Amino acid sequence: MAGADGGADGGRGSNWYWCLEHGKAEPAGQCRAEQQMGPYDSPEAAARWRERVEDRNEAWDAEDERWEGPGAGA
Length: 74
Prior knowledge:
Elements: E1 16-19, E2 24-27, E3 36-40, H1 43-47, H2 49-68
C-alpha cells in the first residue's frame, strides 16, 4: 500500500528510482540496479534525475576550475 507521499514505505525513506531502460520512475526492486538512478524521495524527484546530475556536474566543474585554475586539464 502506498504511503501519503506516494511511496510504498509510507514516507519512511527513499524508495523511488528512475529506470533508464523503461524511461520512468519505479519503486525499488523493479529493475536491475545498473539500470537505475536513485534513490529519490518521490516519483517526481526521480523524474528530475537528469537535472540533478547536470547541476552536480556543473558544481564539480566549477570547483575543479577554482582548485586547478582556468583552463587546467583541458
